[in-house]
Design brief:
The protein has 348 residues and is mostly helical. It is built from 14 helices and no strands.
């Protein structure tokens, strides 16, 4: 795809030297606000179990949890539900359920944005032929319709969680015994999550906060693109389409961290927006730093403030990841965590 191209490190470095500091700061502020948005959504997801959960505690756990993902990789995914369970005195299984539902809503929002991006791709700077544009529009309508149907189904399952659990468990019984246990565990986590949206108002709030979360993400990307001279001319629609492609292309990484989103970013910027490899690589690196790494210093400081031994979190993440999403496996009969304690006393 890029054979014969000599990478110009000077051009790559110029991408950073020419940055607009004002728009970079705005991008960072948008990025940090997404973690607050996640805390707001999580408070709705646990409202039935904890009607007056501390928003600050949820934000702290979110910041530390995403820092753990950056530092430890995928095993860090389970740190956030573990910390929220500890801080709010809730069973870990219930927080794994909330995490599972959050992931589903993020995946569906990514699919919805991707669908809109495909439908609008011909109205932007993206260079595609008429035939390909028709295919993309058709795919966009299909993706948007699928995402909408799935969100409606999530709402119905939330309102009728008992019926949903029964039907899902019956469907899982036809699977081979070797995978049936894991699927049943995922059903348990899913049902625990959707039980938190057993009212119309809760469903609307979760959807609203999911929309807000992704608007903040698009705002972050838009400000960062304005900070880079070579992408400053991108419109909000251009940026939304880019977010849609990247979110869908790296869908298995949401909300994790890894090379997937960066690779997809470079491909989209070079192949669809016709940027040079150097500029595309610089933008991809900036996006990774702003959307993932920027939370790390805050997460580390909050961990110290909370008396959390951060070096022990890796073991917690590995243990929970090995157990998988089995609600009964990661919580005792009384709902207490079976993993080792990492907090030196009560959080301040």
């Amino acid at each position: 795809m890029w054979s014969g191209h000599a990478f110009d490190w000077g051009k790559f470095g110029h991408t950073f030297r020419a940055l607009n500091p004002f728009w970079m700061l705005a991008a960072i502020l948008f990025a940090l606000s997404t973690y607050w948005g996640r805390a707001l959504r999580w408070r709705v997801l646990i409202r039935k179990q904890k009607p007056h959960a501390s928003l600050w505690s949820l934000f702290v756990a979110t910041a530390i949890g995403f820092t753990a993902i950056v530092v430890f990789g995928r095993p860090g995914e389970m740190i956030r539900p573990y910390l929220i369970a500890k801080k709010e005195k809730l069973p870990i299984s219930s927080q794994v359920g909330a995490w599972f539902l959050e992931r589903l809503y993020d995946l569906l929002m990514a699919l919805l944005i991707f669908g809109v991006a495909l439908m609008q791709v011909q109205s932007t700077a993206v260079e595609v032929g008429e035939a390909l544009a028709w295919v993309l529009r058709l795919g966009g309508h299909a993706a948007g319709a699928l995402a909408t149907v799935c969100i409606v189904l999530l709402a119905v399952f939330g309102l009728f969680s008992g019926w949903a659990e029964k039907r899902l468990r019956q469907a899982a019984e036809v699977l081979p015994a070797s995978v049936q246990g894991r699927v049943q565990s995922m059903v348990s986590a899913f049902v625990q999550g959707i039980q938190s949206t057993s009212s119309a108002s809760a469903i609307l709030q979760v959807v609203a906060y999911s929309v807000l979360e992704w608007l903040l993400i698009i705002g972050c990307y838009y400000c960062l693109f304005l900070a880079v001279p070579q992408t400053a001319a991108f419109t909000l629609l251009d940026v939304s389409i880019f977010v849609g492609f990247v979110a869908f292309g790296s869908v298995v990484q949401i909300p994790g961290v890894g090379g997937g989103p960066q690779i997809v970013s470079v491909i989209i910027l070079t192949q669809l927006f016709r940027l040079s490899m150097e500029v595309a690589s610089g933008v991809a690196l900036l996006l990774w730093v702003v959307t993932f790494v920027v939370i790390v210093p805050f997460g580390l400081l909050l961990a110290v403030h909370e008396g959390i031994r951060f070096t022990r979190l890796a073991g917690i993440g590995d243990e929970l990841a090995e157990e998988g999403l089995t609600a009964g496996a990661i919580a005792g009969d009384n709902g207490e965590p079976v993993v080792e304690k990492v907090v030196e006393g009560e959080p301040s």
